[in-house]
Specification:
about 325 residues, elongated
């Protein structure tokens, strides 16, 4: 009976020991993915900020500038692209809406971001765009891959429509979470005007062509990223925009269009940290808790099987030693 129980325990030990790496290296990469219907809203503020009054074309210091950023999963489009791409795809329709202290619109820039649901690598398909202009992204945007590594990544900049390295700068502790800190600096670059801008009587898409006044931009962006889920728990930008040259400025060389240190609003930081904390438990369950638990369980079952096997042999060995004495008597 002990021998049969030992064989059962040995089989279970092999099963759990084999399940451990399968769960971590086979099941997790296939099961962990960004849901296609995700919706997220984020509010950021620059307090105080410098903002251009497009009526007088004078830069003024204002109490705050607010940026409302929304990400909405487009399930219908993701399913359409999946049929041709042959893999799980997420389509995010995003909007970056900038408003002044009075709530009036400063700009509104829509984006369509298409990426692999598992790896977050970009998927190039019809509809990939920024402000209605077709783009071909390289690298990541908005989110890092699951199990983020301590290295630089290519990060897409929507203003310049190009990708550049975002550098890993070390580990930090943020709101009790161990996070990776990344920085990217975009040097002064001429960029297109947003198509939606509060310029009376002027089509923003043809503004530079009509007036010769160009729009320039630079930023330093900073992200605190949870390495387990790849989700940023905090983000900031030191953002500057200028209008330069042309007839629009009335002979001036340049004027500040927007300047400020943009930070996530504290209540949205709290919400993001709570959401990421709950999601990271699920990822850790598949990458750490269960694989290590199964490995330890397999080792324990193996040890128990060996103990039962050793005990089952002792009675047979003892009877074999007593048998010659019985014959000699």
């Amino acid at each position: 009976m002990r021998r049969r129980a030992g064989l059962v325990l040995l089989a279970l030990a092999v099963f759990f020991a084999a399940l451990s790496p399968l769960l971590r290296w086979y099941a997790f990469p296939r099961l962990a993915k960004v849901p296609p219907g995700q919706y997220q809203e984020m509010v950021l503020e620059a307090k105080p900020a410098t903002l251009l009054d497009y009526g007088s074309l004078q830069a003024k210091e204002v109490e705050k500038v607010t940026i409302v950023q929304t990400l909405k999963g487009n399930v219908e489009e993701s399913e359409r692209i999946e049929r041709s791409a042959g893999r799980d795809v997420v389509v995010w329709d995003s909007l970056s809406y900038v408003q002044g202290p009075d709530g009036a619109m400063v700009s509104a820039i829509p984006e369509r971001y298409i990426f692999d649901a598992h790896s977050q690598a970009p998927v190039h398909a019809t509809g990939e765009a920024v402000d209605g202009e077709a783009v071909r992204r390289e690298g990541i945007e908005f989110k890092w891959p699951f199990l983020t590594e301590k290295r630089d990544y290519e990060y897409f900049d929507a203003q310049t429509r190009t990708s550049a390295p975002i550098h890993f700068k070390g580990t930090r502790t943020f709101r009790g979470l161990d996070v990776y800190y990344f920085e990217q600096t975009i040097p002064w670059t001429k960029v297109p005007y947003p198509k939606k801008m509060p310029i009376p009587g002027v089509d923003a898409s043809t503004l530079e062509k009509q007036t010769g006044t160009s729009r320039w931009y630079t930023t330093k962006r900073m992200f605190w990223v949870d390495p387990v889920t790849g989700a940023p728990v905090n983000g900031e930008e030191i953002h500057q925009e200028e209008l330069r040259g042309g007839t629009l400025l009335g002979g001036r060389e340049k004027v500040t269009a927007f300047s400020g240190h943009v930070k996530m609003r504290p209540d949205y930081v709290d919400h993001t940290v709570a959401l990421v904390t709950s999601q990271r438990r699920l990822v850790l369950l598949m990458t750490s808790y269960l694989p290590w638990g199964f490995l330890v369980l397999g080792g324990g079952l193996l040890a128990l099987a060996l103990v039962l096997e050793a005990r089952s042999r002792r009675p047979r060995e003892a009877s074999a030693e007593r048998e010659p004495e019985a014959v000699g008597a």
